[in-house]
Amino acid sequence: DTEVTQTPKHLVMGMTNKKSLKCEQHMGHRAMYWYKQKAKKPPELMFVYSYEKLSINESVPSRFSPECPNSSLLNLHLHALQPEDSALYLCASSQGAQTQETQYFGPGTRLLVL
Amino acid sequence: DAKTTQPPSMDCAEGRAANLPCNHSTISGNEYVYWYRQIHSQGPQYIIHGLKNNETNEMASLIITEDRKSSTLILPHATLRDTAVYYCIVRRSNTGKLIFGQGTTLQVKP
Q1: I want to staple B88 with a disulfide (CB 3.0 to 4.6 A). Which of A60, B22, B68, B77 is the partner?
Q2: Cβ B34–A102 below 8 Å, yes or no?
Q3: Distance between first and last Cα of chain A
Q4: How many whole angstroms separate alpha carbon B43 and alpha carbon B39?
Q5: Do B42 and A108 touch (CB under 8 A)?
């Protein structure tokens, strides 16, 4: 089973709202990732968690706050977003964060910020 | 970071082999070549990866040149469901980060 699940599928929020995206995997993977994908563009890495610790932050604005409560779960907390933050947010996981470990992606959460 | 160059779009007739090229001339010795595809509005799907040798799995074959500066993904019998954006990615050796390029939009036609 190589399934990564993400909830919700779609989310609409105002600029003053606080919301969270959720990602879950039960493959025993120890690395988890958040990517952002704007329309007609490739995915861009935001954060990497390795063994539940944040290992990479690609200079993401603080209005995005990741959290990894346990090895199966990854959250992305959203606060005071801007309309330009509207995008598809993708979660991925891999056995570890090493070069040869394959990343498996979830279906994404499509976010619209009004 | 090693960058990849892919043609922006390609067409393929249904049932024929689709050969998708990728240039990665600055690849380092211990960096892997990965291929993913993304069907409209879905998450990227892993296809195959390799380091030096050619690789084959149930989805595709990956041919890497001896100097490792380019590779070709081969879908042996393309179907309409293979219509997608195909990304060739060189995996950074120290972090394992995936840096997606612009990809090739493959259109499989009846």
Answers
A1: B22
A2: yes
A3: 37
A4: 8
A5: yes
Q: pLDDT 10s per residue in chain A (114 long)?
A: 569 999 999 999 999 999 999 999 999 999 999 999 999 999 999 999 999 999 999 999 999 999 999 999 999 999 999 999 999 999 999 988 776 788 999 999 999 999
Q: What angle is formed at CA B48 by the lines to CA A58 and CA A107, rounded to 5 degrees?
A: 55
Contact B59, B76 (CB under 8 A): no
Q: Which of A53, A103, A110, A111 is the best substitution to test chain B (most B C-beta atoms within 10 A)?
A: A103
User: Scanning the structure block, which residue is given the tokens 């001896």?
Assistant: B66
Closest CA to B69 of B6, B20, B27: B27
CA angle A36, A39, A43 (to 5 degrees): 35
| Cα A84 from Cα A38, distance rounded (Å) | 9
What token pair was written down for A94? 């891999």
Inform me whether the C-beta atom of residue B87 falls under 8 Å from chain A C-beta atoms. yes
Cα B83 to Cα B90: distance, rounded to the nearest angstrom: 22
DSSP, res B98: B
Instruction: Inform me whether the C-beta atom of residue A21 falls under 8 Å from chain B C-beta atoms.
Output: no
